[in-house]
Automatic annotation (TrEMBL):
Organism, as annotated: Dyella agri
Sections of the chain in a coiled coil: none
Chain residue ranges for the region called Disordered: 315-335
Residues of the Aldehyde oxidase/xanthine dehydrogenase a/b hammerhead domain: 221-312
SMART domains: Ald_Xan_dh_C (SM01008)
Record-linked InterPro entries: Ald_Oxase/Xan_DH_a/b, Ald_Oxase/Xan_DH_a/b_sf, AldOxase/xan_DH_MoCoBD1, AldOxase/xan_DH_MoCoBD2, AldOxase/xan_DH_Mopterin-bd_sf, N-heterocyclic_Hydroxylase, OxRdtase_Mopterin-bd_su_IorB, TAT_signal
Domain of life: Bacteria
Name this polypeptide is given: Xanthine dehydrogenase family protein molybdopterin-binding subunit
Length: 756
């Protein structure tokens, strides 16, 4: 066994078992030499007495188990939930399991292309658990099979007569053999010709049980290391000053004062590479100051004398974009894309009993990750080693490989726990910057973005405007729904065909599609020079706010209970086939809605002095609803109670799910109450936390009551941002109600809530 300095440990001349995700989702099991394409392993992964049982599992002779978490944990709890899946299939003793954050697993195939050792590696996108559900159960089942086979040979009993429990193989006569005593024999066995079958659900002993976050102790005691905490000897610290305009250019610069600062080594210019997609290269022209320490780098940056020349977007403003959206939606302009068109909206609408209409504007949003962009990069002649916070290690690898030309297995990417992602770390402009700098100075570089640069150089969520009209028949049934959305696509310039740019902004199956017989959804493209990219809960966040706020406005004009309006819209229990695959189960949607209504005491909504608001949504096979109670003392808003119900199918870790639901709820409330990015003359106006104030403890509720629907055998769905879409409209509906009761300023409050 050979150590590779701080870069991890590589096995030498040992056969290992590797489990890979096949191109069609099948599990590919093979045996090959470690040198062929085994990724570097963390130093703690193998000691002198550990044996490998598959790509994710290591067990030592004392029965201690190491399980690798393949997806980056951005605070979503996947570093706990994913190993739980393996541990349950393995019948491991969870008290003896340690979890290791796996870096990128990449090797070289025979054709020189990358070969992913752990299959899909992607975090913070709400689909880690459903994507891993099959793969990781197979991984655990294989490790258990190997141990059982080794025990069968030792005990002289057929393997199918043995059972496993808490790290022990047990024979019918009561004899027990520990995993630790079997691992040496098990690691030498040939793989089965067919993958062993995973457990049946009734045999689960860990899945579905509440488990604390495996990193919780390290986090609360300050021992957790994020990428920004990593250092390397002789590494230079690099800080940046980007152009205030993404399409700007450096007109003149005097580096003399900066280079005079003690410790400053070099000042360099960085430019976006022509022809590269956004997120794959430098986000905007920048000047980098490299120094021996952070203080010198910042001092040097402050001493720079430079002037930027604006580009074509120099006169852009958020106000002008809002006017552009208003003009498009108020005029007769044809939509950029008709996303969905069911029935005949115009014909049926002409004969409807009543018509409703409303508009909703939502501002630009930044990601504002707690851990700003950073990257530690060492680029040598035949090897690249990086430590970085990313949601997509394979996409980060592609950036490094393009800039260095190194072979797949010459690039190592380590991903510690990530200090927030929210979609920002699906782009890797900061990685490109670090690699460019490290190559230029031929030394390790520790790139650190300051908060002002983080706010001013984001891939923002576009502002958007919804204009919705609907009609009802004589029985108060919604018979037409016409929703028009104007926004600047997050996919613009990213190599996506023009006729698919809408797909980051709206979904054809979003509610109330399928519930209203005559349904139309149109998207209008706004032109903007601001960089855009993926954002948490996008596109559900903005669409659910508009839809669920509008449903409440319809209920108000009909003078009826908003819950009754929704239940009539949802209709009788049935499944509705979705255009993008899957089904909408109206019974499950109705259930989460009724659960929060019952818990909040909705029967008193009309008589309550406080305001009660409600909202529901469905996405990717999961269902969510919120009910919120607010009070109004003068002009001071109080959020008294928040209840959220979720139906995510199979629940891996109830405690982790509760944390995700509560966290997403608070994030959505903070966003609705406080946050907006504005720009003037093409420049972002928010540069510090005081300009973009996240919700304080005093502003947000003391607790979020979470109701989890018991699973009924359905596969698990994602939940990292499931609770975001319905929190804001439930809040708005609640505030509208309390204002009607206590302040009697309905027109003013309705306009305010549309602008949240």
């Amino acid at each position: 066994m050979s150590a590779n300095s701080s870069n991890g440990i590589r096995l030498s001349r040992r056969r290992f078992l590797q489990i890979l995700a096949g191109t069609a989702g099948a599990l590919v099991v093979g045996v090959r030499l470690a040198e062929a394409s085994e990724p570097p392993l963390p130093p703690e992964w193998l000691g002198n007495h550990f044996h490998e049982l598959g790509a994710y599992v290591r067990i030592d002779v004392e029965g201690n188990v190491l399980i690798g978490a393949r997806d980056p944990d951005t605070g979503t709890g996947v570093a706990t939930a994913l190993p739980m899946i393996i541990a349950d299939e393995l019948d491991a003793d969870w008290n003896r399991v340690n979890v290791v954050h796996l870096g990128l697993g990449v090797g070289a195939a025979d054709n020189g292309q990358p070969q992913w050792s752990y299959g899909r590696q992607r975090g913070g996108t709400g689909d880690s658990i459903p994507a891993a559900w099959s793969d990781l159960r197979q991984a655990g089942a294989l490790a258990r099979w190997l141990l059982t086979q080794a025990a069968a040979r030792r005990l002289g009993i057929a393997a199918d007569r043995l059972r496993c429990e808490a790290g022990t193989v047990i024979a019918p006569d009561g004899r027990r053999v520990t995993y630790g005593s079997l691992v040496d024999d098990a690691s030498k066995l040939d793989l089965p010709k067919q993958a062993p079958l995973p457990k049946s659900p009734e045999r689960y002993t860990l899945i579905g049980k509440p488990v604390g976050d495996v990193n919780a102790h390290a986090i609360v005691t300050g021992q957790a290391k994020y990428a920004i905490d990593h250092h390397e000897a002789e590494a230079l610290v690099a800080v940046l000053l980007h152009s205030p305009w993404q399409d700007g250019s450096l007109e003149r610069i005097d580096t003399t004062p900066a280079l005079a600062v003690k410790g400053v080594v070099k000042v360099m210019q960085l430019k976006p590479e022509p022809g590269q997609l956004p997120g794959h290269t430098v986000i905007a022209p920048a000047v980098a100051v490299l120094a021996e320490n952070t203080w010198a780098a910042l001092e040097g940056r402050d001493k720079l004398k430079l002037q930027w020349k604006p580009g074509a977007g120099a006169e852009a403003s958020s106000g002008a974009l809002e006017q552009q959206a208003t003009s498009l939606l108020d005029g007769d302009t044809a939509p950029t894309t008709r996303v969905r068109d069911d029935g005949d909206v115009e014909k049926v609408g002409k004969h409807a009993a009543r018509r409703f209409e409303a508009s909703y504007y939502q501002p630009w949003l930044a990601h504002a990750c707690p851990e700003p962009m950073n990257c530690l990069a060492r680029i040598d002649k035949d090897r690249a080693s990086l430590v970085l916070p990313t949601q997509a290690p394979q996409q980060a690898w592609a950036v490094v490989q393009r800039l260095t030309g190194l072979a797949p297995d010459q690039i190592e990417i380590r991903v510690p726990r990530v200090g927030g992602g929210y979609g920002r770390r699906l782009d890797h402009d900061y990685v490109a910057e670090a690699v460019m700098l490290a190559k230029a100075v031929q030394k390790p570089v520790r790139l650190l973005w300051t908060r002002d640069q983080d706010f001013a150089n984001d891939w923002y969520r576009s502002a958007c405007m919804h204009k919705i009209s609907a009609t009802i028949d004589g029985k108060r049934n919604l018979v037409t729904w016409n929703q028009r959305l104007a926004s600047a696509s997050a996919l613009s310039g990213r190599g996506v065909p023009a006729d698919r740019l809408w797909s980051s902004e709206v979904q054809p199956d979003q509610l109330p599609a399928g519930l209203v017989p005559n349904y139309r959804s149109d998207w209008y493209a706004l032109e903007s020079s601001l960089p855009r990219g993926p954002h948490r809960a996008m596109p559900h966040l903005s669409n659910a706010f508009a839809v669920e706020s509008f449903v409440d406005e319809i209920a108000h004009q009909l003078r009826e209970d908003p819950l009754k309006t929704r239940l009539r819209l949802i209709g009788e229990p049935r499944t509705i086939a979705l255009k993008n695959g899957g089904v909408l189960d109206t019974d499950r949607l109705r259930n989460v809605l009724q659960l929060v209504a019952d818990r909040i005491g909705w029967k008193n909504w009309l008589r309550s002095v406080n305001g009660l608001g409600i909202a529901c949504w469905a996405m990717d096979g999961a269902y969510v609803a919120h009910a919120i109670e607010t009070s109004l003392q003068g002009d001071k808003l109080g959020i008294e109670r928040v209840v959220c119900a979720v139906d995510v199918g199979r629940v891996i870790n109830p405690l982790g799910l509760e944390g995700q639901v509560a966290g997403a709820t608070l994030d959505a409330l903070s966003t609705a109450l406080n946050l907006a990015i504005t720009y003037k003359d093409g420049q972002i106006q928010q540069r510090e936390w005081k300009d973009y104030p996240l919700g304080s403890m005093a502003l947000l509720p003391n607790a979020v009551e979470v109701i989890t629907v018991p699973d009924d055998g359905r596969p698990p769905t994602g939940a990292s941002f499931l609770a975001m879409p319905t929190a804001a409209p439930a809040l708005a509906n609640s505030v509208f109600r309390v204002s009607a009761v206590r302040v009697r300023r309905l027109p003013l409050m309705k306009e305010f809530l549309r602008m949240l």
